[in-house]
Amino acid sequence: MIEDATSTQSDFIREIIDSDLKTGKHDRIATRFPPEPNGYLHIGHAKSVCLNFGLAAQYKGTCNLRMDDTDPAGESMEFVGSIQNDVRWLGFDWDDRLFFASDYFDRLYQFAIDLIKTGKAYVCSLNADEIRAYRGTLTEPGKNSPYRDRTVEENLDLFTRMRAGEFPDGAHVLRAKIDMSSPNITMRDPVIYRIKRSGHYRLGDNWVIYPMYDFAHCLSDSIEGITHSICTLEFENNRPLYDWFVNELIGGSKPRQIEFARLNISYTILSKRRLIELVESALVDGWDDPRMPTVAGMRRRGYTARAIREFCSRIGVAKNDNLVDIALLEHCVREDLNETAPRAMAVLRPLKVIIDNYPEGATEDMECANHPQKPEMGTRMVPFSKTIYIEKDDFMEEPPRKYKRLGPGREIRLRNSYVIRYASMVKDDATGEIRELHCTYDPDTKNAAPADGRKVDGVIHWVSAVHAVPVTVRLYDRLFKVADPAGAEGEMKDLLNPGSLEVVDRAYVEPGLGQAKSGEKYQFERTGYFCCDTKDSLPLKPVFNRIATLRDSWAKISAK
After folding, report:
1. The model's pTM
2. Which of 478, 487, 531, 558 is most buried, most CB within 10 Å of its CB?
3. What structural domains does the chain harbor?
4. What pLDDT digit, counting tens, does each position of 510-530 carry?
């Protein structure tokens, strides 16, 4: 059973924080979640959200939400809004602490001026390829730019004119003057400002120069009084640069950068660049496609915030990258929905069954529990009639010995109803496909065992044909067919699972589900967990998305 609480389990990050509090380095804890608003959040971001806001809650501190919007290309208010919605949906709030790196552009510009005045930054006129060539390699040191020794006055003049828009894109950059022979390539005079006439989604054309992420991020942390800057392992080599900027420009208590392993999940891609490619290439139906690992996609599919928080708690934080089995995420979702989702009956691939000895035109209501283990969830009445639908898979002409469903010479129980016995079938003359079954029922077995003690072969679900509501059902599966698509060779489109979406245009559900509301979740008995789609459902015309099967069917496939 899932406990709805933020994890407080011990890990190396919490050990660092405990030590900092014990030694008096900090008397409070302040974290931040700093996404770039150039896409929707995904499950990897959700892990960071849970970690940063969870740490703040555990230590009675604060967590800011900050948009690191230093690269205007691709940034938009749509993404800002989606990020805020996702963080709130996950169960967290930043109160009045919503910030933007772009709020600090004037201060960051002044910080750059300060570096120039102290001789620790210079305007470089090499182009991008030349800068790369001068930087050196992992085994060879870099060499100084020919513009490295420009005077302070010349650098101030050029940088001021860059700000004024006198130069075209790429003509100059501002670089920190650190050490071109450093074994850490990041420290070899990194670029801290570039000219970029893209127009900013918040500031318009007020700026034509933009700070680089490494420059803006650490200084934004410092401005906000962040104590612990939690980031993923790819920024480990950038930590000396983070500290250099902070030490050179900020006094007083300084934030500490701590790196943890980013989330990698099997059958999933979490690279924002690749996710953008999926969306822009129309390989999926937008950022909220229920197959996407975005928070919006998972929410639309029917995943619960509590299940995602539980998943993030169970995987914890580590220092080394690893591949987490997506089955664990699906297990957390099933575990939560098993507790909370009311039961219902739905037939996805209908086979008509006529009960020959049931009274013509008669209807009766069957009382069905909304949850077999939770009487407090109540019951519902489901109509029963002479003609019903069952799943095609629940009948076989020549069933194997251990088959527990309907077949010639067999009896089965209809869920919450009667025992029926197979009598005959009608086939299509042209195709040989079974069109309908004829059965008889035992009227003394309404929610009761046969009086003579005979055993029936199983229990199946059903819906009354005259009362059933036709609906569209989308059967979602994993988006990729390979366990590690991020590391696989070939075009991404060739790695996609062709069976990731199957649309069932005419399934039938019990009548109460015809009025299902957007976002409502159910367990379709014996079939899986489903959610009423939040985007395409209409009043009295619900569309149901499969959230998860009742069991991990992929585990069975891979074991064969």
Report:
1. 0.93
2. 531
3. 12-260 (3.40.50.620), 272-340+471-559 (2.40.240.10), 350-467 (2.40.240.10)
4. 999 999 999 999 999 999 999
